[in-house]
Specification:
alpha+beta; Arc Repressor Mutant, subunit A; Alpha-Beta Plaits; 3 domains; four-stranded antiparallel beta sheet; 8 helices; about 20% strand; globular; TACO1_YebC_N; cytoplasm; Transcrip_reg_TACO1-like_dom3
Length: about 240
C-alpha cells in the first residue's frame, strides 16, 4: 500500500499550497458536522473526526471556533453531501465528494471540470466499486512493532502497518479507524501526521508524462471548486 500513501501525501501537499481555500472547505465541513448533532466533539463523533483531520492541516482555531459558533447559532445554510464518479485519460478513475447548497451548480461545475480536461462524468457506481473505504493514520516517534503491539493490546485490527519516510502508516477498516486513534492516544501519541477516512484504489494506473499533466490539471480543477471537499483517484503520481 506504500504507493497509495504517496497519493495521500501528494494530496496533502497540494492542499497545503492552497491554504486559504483549504481552510474555507474545512470551515464548511465543520459547520455541517456541528449542525448535524451536538456542537461538542466529545458528544459528536462526526465533528470529532473532522476536527482531527483539520488538525493535520493546521486549520487555525479561529476558523474552527467560527464554524462551530455558526452552527450553535442555528445557521440557516443547509448543505447536501454528494458523490460524483468519473473517468480521466487512459483508464484513470476519480471520485469527487462535495458539500453543496446548490446541487445543479455543483453538478454542472464538476461535469465541466471533467470535460475540459480530457475526462467525463460517469453514473453512480461506475467507479466506486474499484476503491476501498479505508482509514489511514500516520504518526512519528514509534516503529511498526510498537504500533502493532499497541493495537493488539487494544483489540484493534489493522489492515496493514508499514514504516515509510520515518513515519508509521496504519491502514484500517473504516469502523476501526477511531478505535485505532484512541488506542494510540492512550499509548501516548499526541499528534498524527495524517488522520483520514479515504477511498483507496484497488489497483493504480501509471500515465505518460503528457497524460499525467492533463490528469493533474483535471484534479486541480476539481479541487479548486468551492463545493468539492475531497478528490480520490487511482493514478500513481510517483515519488
Amino acid at each position: 500500500m506504500g504507493r497509495k500513501w504517496n497519493n495521500i501525501k501528494e494530496k496533502k501537499a497540494s492542499k497545503d499550497a492552497k491554504t486559504s481555500r483549504v481552510y474555507a472547505k474545512f470551515g464548511r465541513e465543520i459547520y455541517v458536522a456541528a449542525k448535524s448533532g451536538e456542537p461538542d466533539p466529545e458528544a459528536n463523533q462526526t465533528l470529532k473526526f473532522v476536527l482531527e483531520r483539520a488538525k493535520t492541516y493546521n486549520v487555525p482555531k479561529a476558523i474552527i471556533d467560527r464554524a462551530i459558533e455558526k452552527a450553535k447559532g442555528g445557521g440557516e445554510e443547509n448543505y447536501d453531501q454528494l458523490r460524483y464518479e468519473g473517468f480521466g485519460v487512459n483508464g484513470s478513475m476519480v471520485i469527487v465528494d462535495a458539500l453543496t447548497n446548490n446541487v445543479n451548480r455543483t453538478a454542472s461545475d464538476v461535469r465541466a471540470a471533467f470535460g475540459k480536461n480530457g475526462g467525463n462524468m460517469g453514473v453512480s457506481g461506475s467507479v466506486a466499486y474499484m476503491f476501498d473505504p479505508t482509514g489511514v493514520i500516520g504518526l512519528e516517534g514509534k516503529n511498526e512493532e510498537e504500533v502493532l503491539e499497541i493495537l493488539m493490546e487494544a483489540d484493534v485490527d489493522a489492515r496493514d502497518i508499514l514504516e515509510e519516510d520515518e513515519a508509521v502508516i496504519i491502514y484500517t477498516e473504516p469502523d476501526e479507524f477511531q478505535a485505532a486513534q484512541e488506542a494510540l492516544r492512550t499509548a501516548g501519541v499526541e499528534d498524527f501526521t495524517v488522520a483520514e477516512l479515504t477511498m483507496l484504489p484497488q489497483t493504480e494506473v501509471t500515465l505518460s508524462e503528457e497524460d499525467q499533466a492533463l490528469f493533474e490539471k483535471m484534479v486541480d480543477a476539481l479541487e479548486d471548486l468551492e463545493d468539492v471537499q475531497q478528490v480520490y483517484h487511482n493514478v500513481d503520481l510517483g515519488e
